[in-house]
Amino acid sequence: MAPYQPEPRQATSGYGDNSLASEWSLVQPLVRLRDAVPGSAVSLVKAGVTLEGLPVGSVRPPQVDPTSEHVEQLAAIIAAGRAAAAVLTGEVSPGSSSVAPKCRVRGGRP
Fold this sequence. Notes:
By secondary structure, the chain is mainly α. It contains 3 helices and no strands. Helix 1 (20-36) packs antiparallel against helix 3 (68-88).
């Protein structure tokens, strides 16, 4: 039996004409960040939750918390995702100077 292979598709989220490739371009930076340090998926989730204003504490050993550089990269990825979501939902138009609120490193929502 051949292994399962999903059928190629053109994804639309209901918010206009966006391709699967453009959706992947939003996910790639997060995947690269997660892969930068083995076992960092949990620590990145906890850092993201903390960026959103809910301090959830550190990860348990043997995992390690992300570096401040990684947290800054995560904040930039979240901000880019918020900006893309605002365009997709029609909250702002493409190229607009208005963007969704940015996360502050370890400071929560503005």
